[in-house]
Amino acid sequence: MKIGNIDLGPRPVVLAPMEDVTDASFRILCREAGAAMVTTEFVPSDGLIRDASKAIAKMRTLEEESPVAIQIYGHIPESMVDAARMADRAAELAGGHGADVIDINWGCPVSKIAGRGAGSGMMREPDKLVAITKAIVDAVRTPVTVKTRLGWDESSKIIVDLAERLQDVGIQALTIHGRTRCQMYKGEADWTLIGAVKENPRMHIPIIGNGDINSASRAKEMFDRYGVDGVMVGRASFGHPWIFTEIRHLLDTGEEMPPMSVRDRVTLAKRHFGLSLDLKGPVTGIFEMRRHLSCYFKGLPGFKETRIKLVTSKDPEEILRTLDYVAERWGDEAPEAESAYGI
Q1: Domains of the chain, with CATH numbers?
Q2: Which of 239, 235, 339, 343 minimizes the C-alpha distance to 289?
């Protein structure tokens, strides 16, 4: 599968953008685990054009995570175009590698974004959505992709027609989450309309399916049943970044991997922790790793006291000693991985 000239290989598995999760340390870890491409946290277009340092910092990417998409969101056409131009110059503005892909977020359902017309809120204004997308494609050199949903609600599932219109204005790939905005993340994702977009003879850009990919077998089923070019994994990777290794192994060999041992999870957690400290320093690095560290061992029996220690310590050496204790105490156990989001 290709996005422009970027070759992601056959049946790629892509990391979805997740606010407060997909920072550079997590993205690098997922690339090392087998993700074909990763995506930044959401970058607000209004924050970028105000030169907000936090928004610009989110655009900083590193060579070792490439290929990487910078995702922008907003609802004001001029701001979105300006933000896309800044993402196009991310290496110059934020340092690092820059953007291999600029992704437009027309899919986020949370109220603070969709409620003001951004993200999947734009599904109520498809003409404006398409017009902004076209303006962005025309304004940048980097390949542009879109992530969206089936529609606003059950009565307005517009994705089959919308996919054609987005392709016609020049996007290079389309990711579809199999829920409406009003569903949020409730119920089961409906992949039938994702399949209908893929089967549309007018469509020639890659179609990436998203929604409830929470295991290797589920990923393979969606590839086989709906013929999508790629799948995107989001919430199921949080606390379980080796899901990319599991999916890749099944797709490439036809065999399921055994569950990862706690000892191997500790090795992965140390790698993640080290990246976070290197990239963000000890204070921020430790604080932002807390949400990840305990999730690596979600569901492990008798773990409560150790978990509390992991998420309260401010000393890097103490955290590493605690991880060593986890490896010694539970190392040979291999429980089924549980996503931190419980899907």
Answers
A1: 7-253 (3.20.20.70), 262-330 (1.10.1200)
A2: 239
